[in-house]
Amino acid sequence: MTLRTTDRRQFLRGLSALSALALLPAAQAAAPPTVLAAAWLAGGDLPAPLAQGAGHYVGTLRIDWSARQIHMLGAIPVPHRPHGIVAMPGGEGFYAVAFRHGRWLLAADARGRELRRVDLASEPGGRTFNGHVELSPDGQWLFTTEVVPATGEGWISVRSARTLARVAQLRSGGVEPHQLLLDDEGMMLVANGGLRWTRDDQKIGVEHMDSSLARVNPENGALLGQWRLRDARLSLRHLAWNMQPSGRRVLGIALQGNHDAPEQRRAAPALALWDGQALDIPSQSPLGLGYIGDIAPGPGGGFLMSAEIHDRVVFWHPGEAEKLFLIADMSRAAALAPSGAERSLFIGGEKGVARWELNRPAAPLPWPFPIAPDHHWAVLEG
Questions:
Q1: Would you call 254 exposed, middle or buried from its count of C-beta atoms within 10 A (0-12, 13-18, 19+)?
Q2: Which one, 125, 128, 130, 176, has least CB within 10 Å?
Q3: Whole-structure pTM over 0.70, yes or no?
Q4: Contact 24, 31 (CB under 8 A)
């Protein structure tokens, strides 16, 4: 895998041009260790003493950049593909939830040891999880996206962060809610993907898809606003906040094309922005090739996005809003997590992990065990 990094001085001038720099292993020496909560598919036996076989897992990984070593601290087997992960306050642990049609939600500590788990089969409604969980600012409540499989009807469950039990439920404002985040007023912003899926994960009725961004009051479920893109075949899926240089906070929304023609899908834009008033597409660049897996805030108010099935990570910046920039060529680049300062990015792919930084090259580390990370992970330490 090969990574690219932009030139810092050009970036500070407004990204008038970007240049690719070689990656130097020695640059990692000053980086502190990183602990990540992650989800992955293991293709073989995990390292001792975990010593479990192939399958789906969530757990924690410790990356020692100076020693160039990756350690698996803990691994929890799960019965269905994991997807969304959110860190507990202070990095004390994490929550993880099943992908589409899965029924499990769990809490784990920072060593990757399971604390508690809930199964939707034990709750009324006949619903399944749809991939994401979000934590309230006070750390007391969880919000999970859920669907009725037969119809795609969207729901949000409000759950106790301590017990994981459902205490309230709200309509998502659309079909197939995927990820949600909270705004500054505590309102939920829900990316309704708009698609319906069979039990064997095939899309149905794509010509009738209805993707939208909905703003929902978590206190009473009131739909406060709803926005749609002009192109109805673009599915809104993953979300990230970032502050623009102007001081305005903007929501970045990762897009996935669902057009009938392959050439149309590959030409689909990667990113939409919501500024509290309108939903717009800043760039028509096809560099994301029609499928974005994860999105994270980047330097200078930008957004970093993984195009997993096309082995790349791309960068959008408001200084050159009509463009996208390629920052990484990396096999099945999927999970993204920014550092606290948002000046570096941890990237997980099927062959290893890398730390991309704006002002310092970094070297990728290969996995010492046979795993491929899912779309998301979260920094617990470092």
A1: buried
A2: 125
A3: yes
A4: no
